[in-house]
Amino acid sequence: MAKASSKKKAEEKKPEYIHVTFNRPRQYSWSTGRYLGHFYAEAKENKRIVGNRCPKCKDIWLPPTPVCPKCKVDMGWDWAELPQTGEVYQYTYLVMPLWDPHYGEKWANPYPSAIILLDNGVFYRHRLEETDKDKLRAGIRVQAVWKEDYEERGHGMADILYFKTIDEQEAKRCLQ
Amino acid sequence: MPNRVAIVGIGQTYHKSKRPDVSQPEMVAEAVRAALADAQLSIQDVEAVFSANMETFEAIYLPDHGMAAEVGAFGKPGFKVNTGGTTGGSVVAEGFYMVASGLFDIAMVIGFEKQDCGDTTAAITAAVTPIWGKGAATGAIGEFAKQALSYIETSGATEEHAAMIRLKADRNACRNPYAHLKLGLKSVDEILQSAYLVWPLRILDFCPQSCGACALIFASEQRAKKITKKPVWIADVEVVHQEPFRAGVFGDPTGKETYTQHVACERLYKRNGISNPRKDIDMAEIYEPSNWEEMNLYEHFHFCEKGEGWKLIEKGITEIEGEFPVNCSGGVIATNPIGATPVIRVAEAALQIRGDAGEHQAPKDIKTAIATALGGPNWTVLVLLKRSL
Amino acid sequence: MSTVTEKLEGMDVWLYHGQIYIPNTYSAGAVGSKFLIELRDRKRIVGTRCPTCNRVYVPARSICKDCYSQLDEWVEVSNKGTLLTYTVCNQQNAIQPVEAPIVYGIIQLDGADTGFVHLLGEVDPEQLKVGMRVQAVFKKEREASILDIKYFKPLV
Questions:
Q1: Are the beta carbons of A113 and B131 separated by less than 8 Å?
Q2: Domain for residue B15, yes or no?
Q3: For residue A77, which residues of chain C lie inside 8 Å, CB to CB?
Q4: Are B245 and B128 within 8 A, CB to CB?
Q5: Number of domains within chain C
Q6: Contacts of A19 in chain C (CB under 8 A)
């Protein structure tokens, strides 16, 4: 007993510091504007990935943009459909789940994310289906997998579930 | 011609994961008092105060709105900047522009972050546009993990090289009284055994979340010479913007070949007649969120040829006793109070030039140093410091 | 929580309804903590006095805004004071601690040189007057929060 109370006294001597916690989601409504809006519409209606082409340098921008970041000119309304296959350029996956502020929860674990070089040379960021790190490497061929249900699409980039690894030989055989 | 600008006062707090004993404004005041003491000035001598902090990284928006008294800004001109990772670099550029323009003779810049208040990775993830970044954003760490993987695959560097960089940082941090992580790491193996955080980055491969602040006092040439016998001149500053959301969080899809670093170096080196940075500059304090990024940055800043960053650490060139010391302070991987981090780079480089770095002073004579910042929309900020102009 | 995207009628523009949710913890620091603990444990309102300009700050602060002195002299001020100004808020928002109509006041406590922002209660908004005398009402269950003072009520 005596021991316990002396311990309590020692604890009392330690300064007490007050903290205020603030846990409240902050809501927002974010407009796509008409350029991103066109990207959203093409994804929902036609399962297409589209970018827009600069009238001057002819580069294709994804995300689409009203002004070419390089030439600083008005982009006009020239759209290009992008291929849905490409290769993994860089990738990583989360080993320790981190907090996702958009969902207010921790990410799925493991969470492979990648920069994908689409077949026309444009970069795109997305998730990968493959969660086994030993099967991941730069250079593997991948293809977009869409949400099949029309009603579930309408979320732009998230209309693609993930990119799945494809076997090139197998793909060619299917085409024949 | 802009007016000449010198750093006449340097102050920083010690850095820790948690500082429950102070509120955010009180923590910042510690750095301000230290800088005033260093310059032997009173707060009344400071004409304008500019601060730098990452909004939402702590519990509140507009953190500067509750601390005018504590930072000595009450009734004075000045404002806060927020440009992501470069926030502290931007405030140094801001202070430099203000004094160089002749508008102010004495200005103070302050960087601060109290990261025990919030969740940094979540805040960075919340900084990406929800339309493009959501689902693909993994905070800063996912980006540097991807960059590290590219570096492994293209340069020939191994995990041992990254571990050698980490070991150098820890050895230097242990000599720096203000550093946060002082782990006393003994061997490369110790680092290679630490757990993966985001593959291929291990816990020891990435910077910590620190609480701390750093303040610098800038003065015009005339005033500087009266204030101190050892002014450190800001020879030049370069800031290059990029668009962070193009093709994703950090914009540059290749990660390795960063456009802004290329452009910033080209401009700064050309203006200052620097043809061989490793010979023309004596040391560097660089913003390296991870040890892998440090090797990558050696190449970007032309401290070596492309693909040879890892050879600099292998040969010991960037060690404190080496031919070209990098991050004698222990760097960002040891101490990272985000808004203050780039200000600390400038502060530490200036201390090296003054010869006042104490235990972590490089043995060679440092006359010229470069400090860098990285991240956010102003992806690259470079600050060139000299003992004499 | 899931997020919703909505297409605007007749336009290629979409609205993305989302949230940012980052848990935060803000530290009061040693000086702020002492102020809050005094409310909780002793129902006392304390401030700090500037040794140079003699001004008493309530809530307590650690640095004087004018002379930059370190403030470490603690003083207890009265729980009674004078209403300097007020407003009535009829708009309910999730962040507010009580239901609308909410009466906010800035009160100069006797012995303090600064205004103290808090709620007013037990008062008909019609009867509010600048210069009226008010007194702090403490909650029974206190947790070292500024809301350990439930509100200020008119002094009759």
A1: no
A2: yes
A3: none
A4: yes
A5: 1
A6: 25-28
